[in-house]
Amino acid sequence: MKDRRQNIPSKMAKTRVVLRSRELTRYVPVTRLFHRETLRRMLEKNGMVYVKPDIGSLGIGVIKVEKKGLAYSYQSGTRRFSFPGFPALFRSLQQRIGRRRYLVQKGIHVLRHGHRPFDFRVMIQRSPSRRWEPTGIAGRVAHPLKIVTNGSQGGTIYPAAALLTPHGGKAGAGRLIRLMNRIARVTAAQLSRTYPALNELGLDVAIDRSLRPWILEVNTSPDPCPFTKLPDRRMIRKIVAYARGYGKHYRLVCNKAKRAPATGRKR
């Protein structure tokens, strides 16, 4: 039975649908429901995980958890907590999470810009002809004291190529941008088989140190604010125009995200 909702809040529900695509499975970090033994096993195997709310947005509630030797720690917001063993770590996390449904996701060692992690918001929308079309990619560099890259958490917005070129050269940056757009197309096609009423998606995509992309999560009601901070205004114009075509109007009040230092402006 087809689901006619246009907004799917559960990250786990969307992840399960995405994983039905054989092409996409290699781009999805291991993601499980938060349980004590799941957290312990994933920390033993990976050394770093992200604990995040199943339903949530704007990077709120995301926690980075690490195991180094026999010591454990986590960071939430700008605060970092350390523990001598797993039981104390888990008790603290459980108190912080409470009864809310959380996920554990394998940590990705992402590329950095000036020692700050960055990822990308990839926007894909229904065109006027109802075809899925990528309409923009914006780079998001984390606030110096935070683990999340969201503009709403004080992140800085860059053109994608400006962040990727130092790591992969001009040709490598172009290849990764094309690959992210390809991943967005396949993701949209996969999700819209189950949720045919979808009109737009915002993929959060990270690139690891071997230049492999990872889908961190998929948003079905994405905030276009990052695109208002780019020097090239063509992306946000197209995003707004396509949204208007399917009856959506954005409230573009974007005060928290920072604009990258100017290096020339295109209009």
From TrEMBL:
Q: What protein does this entry describe?
A: ATP-grasp domain-containing protein
InterPro entries for the chain: YheC/D
Q: Which domain of life is it from?
A: Bacteria
- Organism for this UniProt entry: Paenibacillus rigui
**Upper lineage:** Bacteria, Bacillati, Bacillota, Bacilli, Bacillales
